[in-house]
Amino acid sequence: MKEEEKVTTQLFNTIIPKHVSDQFLSELRYSHSYDHVGVIFASVTNFWDFYEEKFEGGMGCIRVLNEIVRDLDDLLMSVDNVTKRSDARWAAIQKIKTVGPCYMAASGLDPVTEEQTRQGNHEHIVNLMDFCFKILDTIRQFNSYTFGTNFTMKIGFNYGPVTDGIIGQNKVLYDIWGDTVNLASRMMSTGVVGRIQLPDACVPFLIDHFKLPKRGKVRVKGKGEIVTHFSVERKTPEQIKINIENRAAKKINSTDA
Fold first, then answer.
1. Backbone phi, then psi, for 86, in 5-degree steps?
2. Which residues contact residue 19 at a Cβ distance below 8 angstroms, ignoring those fewer than 6 apart?
3. Which of 221, 247, 250, 251 is catalytic?
4. Across residues 239-253, what is the average pLDDT?
């Protein structure tokens, strides 16, 4: 019986973060609010152009989509089946769900990262942006080894407060909610193929590490016009070092003043 419980727990931890499943399995409920969570929506923009039901009712096309999702899942694969990522940069990133050809993930949904951000360390959002570039690279690689495909993606990015929780007791659903999530989705839907779009409010957390040219004002449902940026590439290590040093110097000068 203990072995069966162990297997069940391990399976649960593959679909729900361990600290969440620990509480849920003991209390049968879970919800928590976070102040600093990165959220991304990455959509295969031309999948429905590729989709065709005439052969096997679309099963072949769904198998192709599943291969793409599995390639993205592999990026977040845990080497210990629980927490340790194959790439340490992705340690704070959780896959939330897929909706059709859209892949949703978030960072900062754990107690360790939550405490780090309270102390002013927002490294996880930088790692989440790196993950976005890895997603774009992964779809390019998929096209290179899969005959006859030319899939494209666009990614929406946002950072801010969210609430996570589990809904139901049978066929439970782990998800996140909040205005941060909604705007990340809008950043994807109003975005440009091959680009990562983010709102102006995210820039201060990322500008030291990435080139973030302004796109301009974009009309967003429920928000009106907001200023957005594209994240186009990582800055060089030398540029990043200079930016961080300059920021630290400004902080010291403002404190002295």
1. -65, -30
2. 110, 111
3. 221
4. 86
